[in-house]
């Protein structure tokens, strides 16, 4: 019997892996649409919870305001990124000359002016190509925005039928209630994660923009949006997002002062928000092992690229909660957790 179960699990895992790999062009916009659906619901709940002298907006009005806000923000985000990507790509060759000059100057400090290794290093560092690859990645991400918004619209149209369908599938009795409780926990934990992560990403992006604008860094709004987006990627997202504006500061300015100011300012912001503010707001909602988050990031990043890296934590949370509610897969949920304490729904 155990051999049959193991074989069934292996077949299921193989099927799911093939599905997420071969069907990624269809699945990525759909999953991102669910992500935006969560964002709108999080904002609607936050707006609805605001009371002025005991009175607040009705639920429908709060939802419409949240929908308008998120829709406007996404439109502005897409327009700014589209414009900025083209400008950054056009300016990249000019910065390449500064890269070469800075490297030669730094190498001169160590007496490597005539070194053949230096010439080889200069050939390897292609700032233009790096910026172009980043721009093309973001442009591809933006091109699917229309499809994502269409999916989001249909998710909202179907929202009121979700629970009735689940109830009919689950049947009667305790099984229905168990599935309802499991879905409620998935919804609440994912909503908390997305809400907190969005809030901290906005804070990081705004503060980072202020720092870069203060030093006069080119395309500060573009880098701030990039920092906001990459802040959703756990562990390495903040490092990558800080690297690009810091590199630009190194090649834009003739002295190291602005470069050091940008690096220190952005790094301090990431540390304060990522290590102090975010854990306080998040609490023990996730209960995921840091190693599991890193492996999940590597896996989903390999399968789906930047969207996979952004969505790896919500996907892992969903898998952990589902696995914790079934005896055959409960040991896997324990391995995925941070402290080994997982609960199943009554």
Short précis:
The protein is mainly alpha-helical.
**Helix content range of the residues, please?**
over 70%
- The coarse silhouette is globular
Average residue-wise pLDDT? 79
Element string (H = helix, E = strand): HHHHHHHHHHHHHH
User: How large a portion of the residues is in β-strands, by DSSP E?
Assistant: under 5%
Radius of gyration: 23 Å
**Uncertain regions: pLDDT < 50 for 5+ in a row?**
115-119
**Count of domains:** 1
Q: Count of helical segments?
A: 14
Q: Profile the largest sheet.
A: none
Instruction: Give the termini separation.
Output: 27 Å
Indicate the structural class.
Answer: mainly alpha
- Please provide the count of β strands: 0
3D architecture notes:
This protein has 346 residues and is mostly helical. It has one domain (2-336). 82% of the residues lie in helices and 0% in strands. The protein has 14 helices and no strands. It has helices at residues 2-22, 24-49, 59-109, 116-124, 127-143, 145-158, 162-170, 174-215, 220-230, 237-252, 257-282, 290-304, 306-324, 330-336. The chain is globular. The two termini are 27 Å apart.
